[in-house]
Amino acid sequence: MNHINTKVLSGLAVAAVVAIGAAVLVSSSREPASESSDEVAYALPELRGHLNDVKTVGLIAADNKPAVTLENGGTGWTVSEKEGYPADTGKLRGLLLNLANARLLEEKTAQAERYSDLGVEDVSNKDAKGILVKLEGLTGPSQLIVGNTSSHGGGTFVRRPGDRQSWLAQGQIRIDRDPIQWVDTVLTDIPSERIAEIALNQGQGKMLRLFRQEPGNGNFRVADLPKGREPAAPDVVGGLASTLSGLKLEDVIAAKTHPQPDGAPKLQGRYRTFDGVTVHVTAWLQDGRHYASFSAALDQAAADKAIRSEQDKAKAGAEARQKAAEKESKPAAKTDTAPAAPPAVQDPAKYRQQRLDELNAEIAHLNRRFQDRHFVIPDFKYANMDKSPDDVLKPLAATQTPLVKIKAKKPAGVGRS
Q: Which of 31, 94, 219, 295 is 20 to 30 A (C-alpha) from 124?
């Protein structure tokens, strides 16, 4: 009996080993290419770990026509087809990460006549559906045709140019072909709380000027208020200060190829912050779209005033904390517990220069975006600039018909002798 059991157990053990081996073989046949061989496992193995080495991303569409060219120059990533305007680096990084992680999951057709079913035909074809991604700056081959996404979820069909074999790769890689979709659309983002003064001119009639004395949410006042008129509700007046907050462009074009139209009515606007950042705007309507050009400069007097105010507040705050610390501590420990003075108090000259450097850097950043370009802006932002004094004042009271005294006629014969 023991002898039989030993033979049975031995047989079962052998069968188990064979079954396990078969299972491993089946499992291996279903696995994507081995992790140990990056050349096989990933669509662009040379990109993995080298995203920062990429200098140019070219997106080539059907008939070998460049759709989008993203370049990393001295001022960062830009979109060549949009006058070298700054690119949306978050979106670009997302694309590069998706490409770097595009692991090859399953072999697909190697027959050229079936490439179009997957969108991976050569982009030299005038009817090509896919996009050829060309990366420059890496050491190895850096091109990939990105085709359709899989209708069964989770995957994108890809093929390396010159390679007959197409693949289903991990992840859904969607690529925009419109250059405007790759720009950083935030043109300005100056919070309304920073705005101290607004001046608007519709090109005819009287200029509208709004101002307030203190930063924050204080109400704007209307300059040169006409006699007998009152400002509208504070939110109507103050709402105009949000024009430069979250201002997103809808398109950007070269000023030299799309000049301002001669003779067309133009709006003029000037927005000044409490610390002196001043943005000048010219806006106009053309072909059903609202265009604007911008420039930025520093109001030195306003900047100096703001810095002095910051230093005075810092000094007052430091003195108040010092007194509070002295009051709470023992006499012998006063010097040990004294709070450190803020930078604005420790070295006023150095602090002033740092603040001026920050403001000038902000001006330079804005002008790099503005220079030699015109922008299509949202209708509601244009409407915020298209204002006259009457738009922020309460309506005039309706004219009342004055009472006319009518002299009563005397009865006949009255008053006669």
A: 94
Q: What is the pLDDT of residue 217?
A: 62
Reported as a single tens digit per residue, the pLDDT across 32-65 is 444 444 445 899 999 999 999 999 999 999 999 9
Both tokens of residue 120?
Answer: 């991976």
- The label of the residue with tokens 């996404």 reads 149
Identify the residue whose tokens are 């050569």. Answer: 122
Angle at 206 between CA 203 and CA 209, to 5 degrees: 100
The helix/strand/coil state of 8 is: helix
Give yes or no for a contact between 78 and 71, defined as CB atoms under 8 angstroms apart: yes
Q: Write the CA distances from 160 to 105, 147, 169, 176, 380, integer angstroms.
A: 15, 11, 12, 20, 46
- Cα torsion angle, 328, 333, 335, 339, sign: negative
Q: Which residues contact 144 (CB under 8 A, 6 or more apart)?
A: 43, 44, 99, 102, 132, 133, 158, 159, 160, 161
Residue 171, Ramachandran bin (φ over 0: left; ψ between -120 and 50: alpha; else beta): left
pTM: 0.79
Identify the bridge partners of residue 158 per DSSP, sorted by sequence position: 146, 167
Is the Cα dihedral 334, 340, 344, 349 positive or negative?
A: positive
Q: How far apart are CA 338 and CA 345, in angstroms?
A: 14
98 CB neighbour count, 10 Å cutoff = 18
Contact 303, 331 (CB under 8 A): no
Q: What is the mean pLDDT of residues 248-253?
A: 97
What does the pLDDT average to over 17-39?
Answer: 38
Rounded distance between C-alpha atoms, residue 222 and residue 233, angstroms: 12
Enclosing H/E stretch for 298: strand 289-298
Where residue 177 falls among pLDDT bands split at 50, 70, 90? very high
Q: Which pLDDT score is estimated for 335?
A: 52
Among 39-53, 106-120, 172-186, 396-410, the range scoring the smallest mean pLDDT is 396-410
Q: How far apart are CA 48 and CA 42, in angstroms?
A: 9
Q: What average pLDDT score do residues 252-276 get?
A: 93
Distance in angstroms (rounded) separating the CA atoms of residues 374 and 293: 5
For residue 351, what are the contacts with CB-CB under 8 A and spacing of at least 6?
A: 307, 311, 343, 344
- Separation of alpha carbons 253 and 267, rounded Å: 19
The total number of residues shown for the chain amounts to: 417
Tell me the C-alpha distance between 98 and 69, whole Å: 18
Residues 381-392: pLDDT tens digits? 999 999 999 999
Residue 104: strand pairing partners: 169
